[in-house]
Amino acid sequence: MSVDIQAINEKIQRESAFVEKITGEVGKVIVGQNYMVERLLIGLLCNGHILLEGVPGLAKTMTVKTISSVIQTKFQRIQFTPDLLPADLLGTLIYNQKTGEFAVRKGPIFSNLILADEINRSPAKVQSALLEAMQERQVTIGDHTYSLEEPFLVMATQNPIEQEGTYPLPEAQVDRFMLKLHITYPLKDEELLIMQRMTSGNGAAPDPVVTPDDILRARKVVNEVYMDEKIDRYIVDIVFATRNPEEYGLKDLTPLIAFGASPRASINLKLAAKAHAFLRRRGYVTPEDVKAIGMDVLRHRLIVTYEAEAEEVTTEDVVRRVLNQIEVP
Amino acid sequence: MDIAKQKYIWFFAAFFLAITPLFSQTPDSLQSSPQQNSQIQLKTFVESSNTPLNRPVVFHIELSWIGELNRYQIEPVSQPVLTNLLLEGSGSENRLEPLDNGQFRSIKSITYRFRPLEMGMAYIDGVVVKYVNRQTGEEDQLSSQRVMVEVTDPLPEPGGGKVKPVIYIALLVIFFAAIFYFLLLFFKRRKEARLQPAPVIPLSEQYLDRLSHEVDPRGTNLNEMTGKLSRIFREYLDQEFSLHARESSTQEIVNQLRDLDMDEKDKNNLIRVLEKLDLLKFAGKNVDPADFTNIYGTIEAFLLKQKRNPDSSQVELKEEQ
User: Are B249 and A286 in contact (CB < 8 Å)?
Assistant: First the structure.
């Protein structure tokens, strides 16, 4: 069967024009962090959510806020604290003394781009409320169920250095995030530019150049990106290698992996690879797309054993080995 | 005759009858008549009336008389009839024994050695010995009675239990020595074969060979051929330049190629081939024969030039059209 790649490519060229606009406008405010911006776009294009780990001060909030303003969507930043309640997040019914009725007061979740800051500082019930809303894309307050607006993207952050008094997300809930990113410090030149820009007092404001409809249209095109069966099999091989490493010549990983990646990993890897190809203006997926996004999709879906922890082997080490070992088609 | 005289006669008769067997028969022998008259005596006996199965039965026939050895001419004695015994050998001897009165007793002795066949009773039938008195020319014969022997359980062989393990150990030692020898020979020959300089076939030539055998540029299923071509090319890059090309994406190979000390033109051509192969493999298109031939030709030309001058990095590749 022959696929009309030319037609897909043309459509991609047309519909992906906003990508450059976004990166251009974000670049006015944010220095570097191309990796984070690109992954945020992948999340938007795949309708997925992102878990972000990084030390404070790396422009996480500013990046999401800037993208939000560029794509003309609503933005909410929710600081998760130990005393936060689900109602603070989702909304609640307020009794109106004048009318004698209960009125709905929607919570900050009713927005397009949500930054759930330090999600692991709130107890499990708040985390569950957020993750349920992320999954169902709807919230029930009283008798009514309210759908959340599209596009809807949650970017949750975790601080890797202060773990005392936190409520780590259960593995089953972490699995609901499409990508988990590790944000690192900027490069020396980038840091210099950040310092100069932020202290000049005349920072440029981003222009709203993209509409939410552009994003929704682009999602449809992402679904049309062609993925050959060879790539499908490659993805399945990667995911299976996390479950049965010995079958892929990775016998030494067997005692290090307690649980491999779930089928949700395969699905998200395929979706993210398509979005990655879209961002590269390509109408078909190559192994390069899978490898580029593989770490972000898989790193939070594996559970390593105590033996691995004792040897200071992280899930990233395991995923890296798998990606470097599986033969590309 | 008075009563006292009769008593004496009866007494002597009874005494005579009582002592007669003592002179005529021993437990293991029989004597023949007429020993009293001819003065020649025949005695047959076995050395033991109970013989283990694994021991021989030794049977003696002994003729003896007073006087010179040549006093009697003894006819050859035929072999006795045997039951549950088998003759193993026989021998004879003549000897003289001095007596107290200055005379000699001549003894002619024949000895048989039998092997018991089964446990139980064994029998040696009586023998008849004919003789001639050379002084009187009188001929006569002597006969003996049947002798029986009880064959009992065999005795353990002295030292027999130790001999067998020694033999087994010796055989094992010989066996292992032989194996060791052949192993030594095998490894020696293998080492010699390894030391012999093997003909070195350049890697590029090996892959050219694979290319011609495994990929048919005029084949009908060009999609499949593209996959094979790509795999062979990546394996070659992997082995020739240690690029881990089989597990790397095209972009990763490209990044590594850029770091290689190779002519820029070659690098660009290789990169173009890799990208084109990606397009053919993953874009879901039916492979255009012209595209395939072009890529095949480029790879083949690259391998040919590598074969001609493997150390040269100034390889000119066929340009893609």
Answer: yes
Contact A5 B283 (CB under 8 A): yes
Average pLDDT of the segment spanning B12-30: 50
Question: Looking at the complex, does the CB of residue A294 fall below 8 Å from at least one CB of chain B?
Answer: no
- Asked if A293 reaches chain B (Cβ–Cβ under 8 Å), the answer is no
Predicted confidence at residue B36, as pLDDT, reads: 43
Query: Which residue has better confidence, B314 or A309?
Result: A309
Is A15 a residue whose pLDDT tops 90? Answer: no
Average pLDDT over residues B189-216: 83
Find chain A residues with C-beta within 8 A of B283's C-beta. 3, 5, 226, 228, 283-284
Chain A window 213-232: which residues touch B at a Cβ cutoff of 8 Å? 226, 228, 230-231
| B283 with A1: Cβ contact below 8 A | no
Q: What is the 3-state secondary structure (H, E, C) of chain A?
A: CCCCHHHHHHHHHHHCHHHHHHHHHHHHHCCCCHHHHHHHHHHHHHCCCEEEECCCCCCHHHHHHHHHHHCCCCEEEEECCCCCCHHHHHEEEEEECCCCEEEEEECCCCCCEEEEECHHHCCHHHHHHHHHHHHHCEEEECCEEEECCCCCEEEEEECCCCCCCCCCCCHHHHCCCCEEEECCCCCHHHHHHHHHHHHCCCCCCCCCCCCHHHHHHHHHHHHHCECCHHHHHHHHHHHHHHHCHHHHCCHHHHHHEEECCCHHHHHHHHHHHHHHHHHCCCCECCHHHHHHHHHHHHCCCCEECHHHHHCCCCHHHHHHHHHHHCCCC
Q: What's the average model confidence in pLDDT over B117-125?
A: 92
Asked if A3 lies within 8 A of B285 by C-beta distance, the reply is yes
Is ipTM over 0.90?
A: no
Closest residue of chain A to B235, computed from CA coordinates: A327
Range among A167-176, B229-238, B303-312 with highest mean pLDDT value = B229-238
